[in-house]
Amino acid sequence: MGRLDGKVAVITGGAGGMGKVHAKTFTAEGAKVVIADLSTSKGKDTAEELGDQAKFIELDVTDEENWKKLVEETEEHFGPINILVNNAGIVVSKSIEDTSLEDFRQTTSINQDGVFLGMKYVFPSMKKAESGSIVNISSIAGIVGSNNNSAYTASKFAVRGLTKAAAVEFAPHNIRVNSVHPGTIRTPMTEQEDVRELVKEMEKMIPMKRIAEPIEITNLVLYLASDESSYSTGTEFVADGGLIQQM
Fold first, then answer.
1. 29 partner at 20 to 30 Å CA-CA among 52, 59, 194, 221?
2. The pLDDT value given to residue 174
3. What pTM was estimated for this model as a whole?
4. CB within 8 A of 20, min separation 6: which ones?
């Protein structure tokens, strides 16, 4: 038996990077997975690769109508939603002085508003299922300050706060909400040219002297999505190789 047998999961940003690893692992553990992403080609390819247990639905996480449509399509295809992984996100690495208001608003719109909208519109579906687990992907930048990452840091602190508020509100409905706070992970985001040097410097500071592989974060997300974590809600789960312990 799989650890997610019979469950329906929605993973935002599921077409590539860490989200794709989540999707592959979830289907392997028995879940039916909706890959929600703006990248139509990658999303369709990933769904095809994973077979009948996966479905791609195009999603702009900042768009309310997109979220309503996603929930409707998911319920029609797989049934009520049991798991939501708010994984989609962007990073803009600039000093506060160089960060434009447009940069700031774009980052918070995706990283913060997207999480809020996901929880808002998936919640009624989880009530139908009479149980649920929401896993919000934050960052260690949602716990400690991050140099030259003001917009990202602000958005990830917000995810942490949203998680706690939702956990209290949703608990009477047997719906849990937790946040995952990775350190540096080997993904396309951390290999972007504008953050590559920062990642190299951070790697030197990590007590374990390496950055995480995506599956190491996925294993934590899987635990929180499964019934194994049935009494955990409103909590930060850190996976950073010990980095913030020395900050």
1. 59
2. 98
3. 0.94
4. 14, 35, 46
Q: Which residue is listed with tokens 């990590």? A: 206
Burial class of 41 by CB neighbour count within 10 A (0 to 12, 13 to 18, 19+): exposed
Specify whether the CB–CB gap between 116 and 169 falls below 8 A.
no
Residue 201 to residue 207: CA distance in whole angstroms: 13
End-to-end CA distance of the chain: 41
The distance from CA 157 to its chain's CA centroid, rounded to whole angstroms, is 14
**Contact assessment for residue 188 and residue 219, using Cβ atoms and an 8 Å cutoff:** no
- The answer as to whether 178 is a domain residue is yes
In a domain, 223, yes or no: yes
Q: What is the mean pLDDT of each run of 10 residues along the chain (247 residues)?
A: 96 95 98 98 97 98 98 98 97 92 97 98 97 97 92 97 98 98 82 77 87 95 98 97 86
Q: Which of 90, 84, 77 is nearest to 38 (CA)?
A: 90
127 contacts: CB under 8 Å, gap ≥ 6? 173, 175
Among 121, 152, 223, 231, the one annotated catalytic: 152
Tokens of 184: 């540096």
* Domain CATH number, residue 195: 3.40.50.720
Residue 226 DSSP code:
S
Q: Which residues pair with 9 in a beta bridge?
A: 33, 83
Q: Is residue 3 part of a domain?
A: no
Q: What's residue 40's pLDDT? A: 97
pLDDT at position 189:
67
Closest CA to 118 of 76, 175, 77: 175
What does the pLDDT read at residue 71? 98
Domain count, the chain: 1
Q: Is 152 a catalytic residue?
A: yes
